[in-house]
Amino acid sequence: MKPKVAFICVHNSCRSQMAEALGKMFASDVFESYSAGTELRPQINQDAVRIIKDLYNIDMNETQKSKLLTDIPEVDIVVKMGCNVICPFLPSKHEEDWGLDDPSGKSDEEFIKTAKAIEEKVKDLKRRIKNNEISLSAIGEI
Length: 142
Prior knowledge:
The model has no long low-confidence stretch (mean pLDDT about 90). This protein has a single domain, classed as Response regulator (Rossmann fold, 3-Layer(aba) Sandwich), CATH 3.40.50. It has helices at about 15-25, 45-55, 60-65, 110-130, and strands at about 5-10, 30-35, 75-80, 95. It contains four helices and four strands, in the order βαβααββα. The protein is α/β, with parallel strands linked by helices. Helix 1 packs across helix 4 (about 110-130) and helix 2 crosses helix 4. The longest helix has 23 residues, at about 110-130. It is globular and about 40 Å long. The chain has a four-stranded parallel β-sheet, covered by helices on one side.
């Protein structure tokens, strides 16, 4: 069974959505990707949608929407995008913070930089899961 990974931030409209799209594109053979936040947005950040379409030919408007933490299944791994405020909490067996700046309202270059950073981190996470560098055994087991 593939582990489930949740990419989370407060608004679930930009970085976490990009991570969900890129997780599905580059790592669906190793883990399932979800994204969520603590507040819903009526639509995904349209700059993020445009950049992901330009770079990867994925249309997030077609395949994804803003979701709350309660809208996604129980997950094994939580990846916080870098909140600078109180990050949402979701129970998991492994958690990490990617500390990415929010490109919202900034130039296309910032969005491209963020997308490329997420792509690298997704591929690295895939490698670490494949190599069993992340412990996903149930808590309490020895």
